[in-house]
Amino acid sequence: xxxxxxLKEKNSDMYQEVKPEPKNDKHEExxxxxxxxxxxxxxxxxxxxxxxxxxxxxxNLKPVLxxxxxxxxxxxxENTEKEREFKSLVFKHILRERRDDDVESVIDDLGEIMQEIxxxxxxxxxxxxxxxxKFEIRNDLTGYGPITPLLEDDSVTEVMVNGxxxxxxxxxxRLVLTDVMxxxxxxxxxxLEKIVAPLGRRIDESSPMVDARLQDGSRVNAIIPPLALVGxxxxxxxxxxxxxxxxxxxxxxxxxxxxxxxxQACVDAKLNLFISGGTGSGKTTTLNVLxxxxxxxxxxxxxxxAAELQLGQEHVVSLExxxxxxxxxxxxxxxxxxxxxxxxxxxxxxxxxxxxxxALDMLQAMNTGHDGSLATGHSNSPRDMVSRLETMVLMxxxxxxxxxxxxxxxxxLDVIIHQSRLRDxxxxxxxxxxxxxxxxxxIVLQDIFTFRQSGxxxxxxxxxxxxxxxxxxxxxxxxxxxxxxxxxxxFVEKSE
Length: 496
What we know:
Blueprint: H1 3-10, E1 16-18, E2 31-33, H2 36-45, H3 70-97, H4 103-108, H5 110-120, H6 130-142, H7 148-152, E3 156-162, E4 167-171, E5 174-177, H8 185-196, E6 209-213, E7 219-223, E8 233-237, H9 246-252, H10 257-268, E9 273-277, H11 283-291, E10 300-304, E11 316-320, H12 334-341, E12 348-351, H13 358-367, E13 374-378, H14 382-394, H15 402-412, E14 415-421, E15 427-439, E16 442-456, E17 462-468, H16 476-481
Parallel strand pairs: 9-13, 9-14, 10-11, 10-12, 12-13
Antiparallel strand pairs: 1-2, 3-4, 3-8, 4-5, 6-7, 7-8, 14-15, 15-16, 16-17
């Protein structure tokens, strides 16, 4: 069937074949024309087919969120005010009567203390949920206050305190508003002091920002008034109780088994790896997993703002930066620690995050015999990471020509691993890129593995797969010299 005949059959109700008088020429002429009279008759006799309403499928502007009324807020305030006052009386009683007692004994007697508060204050109504109040008071005494249950919940990956009345949690890559609340700003500050005090750090009006960590290594950032207008703001990025392994990342879909084998080979061959990505993309988790591939016989020096890496090797030296004291002196930066680590006879240097002038010292270390180093940095792509490294080197205060900086980068780095947090909340390694060489003034990059997106599902999940590009890296022979051999098929996409 010709294209013309298909068109005729498909539009038979709108088009009518008109056969004119035969002509003398050999070719038969067929024309299609719309008959106006027949069209009117058809409109009367046969109803037009209804056109489906697709207005819901059109992408429209979202409605503007209206501001929450103060009435709802005041109602919640009235409901919780009595409980807050009751808990305040309990704490005052403990400080007054049981200040020198062991915390465990105080918790054991908590029920009796609460009953005694009721007897001393008959105006208090016993309409509270005593078991819940006892649980909250116990958390204040032994844990981190109201957010303790969130920190103990394995499904929660991040906790965000926006003042005393709003606490958000991240589950499965999505932020949700919880029903957790603090009494007031002082309550948030008390929890914050409990976090930073054991680390020898402080947070007050003269030093209103701090980076810290919990005992399990979870990262903590806090900022307080007058800089934070909503009240003391705490951001806690939790780490798993058991560090993730490469098999966990494969199961999560962060990378494929072929990519995992390749990255392990890169670490074994002592290539210099740089992990790039945006905030919350999982860079530190991937760095921790890659660091686990390092031989147990190597001396590893880790350098971080707040010690977060959880390495299982025996010979690990962890270094941590120090903020300035009250006089503004005594600060130790990552750059100072990188310089010092070069005198510590390291086999591997692992830098938690490169963000300024330490990039120059890190590149020089990679170029002067400290192979197998690992580091992370913020960027939107592997190419963007190279540009950011150039900027960070200039932040060291050295007036170096751009070409000299690019030669340092091309000579130091072997592989850039770019990780992204996709729109659906999943975290994936989207590029494993080889840093080849400097051609002219351009650093040549070549993708070895990449994420190929095919679409978005009805549930909003990103659809796609991680595939090799078919290019064998230039350091393949160098890996062989180190005794690491990979099958060439690892760089070829498997046929489905």
